[in-house]
Amino acid sequence: VIFLFISPLAIILVVIFGYIEIGLSALLIIPVFILHMTIIIGMGYLVSLSYNQILKYSDVRNKHIREFIAGIELIKCFAWEYAVVSVISRIRRMEFIMILINAMLHMQSIPLSYICSVLFS
Question: What single DSSP character describes residue 47?
Answer without folding.
Answer: H
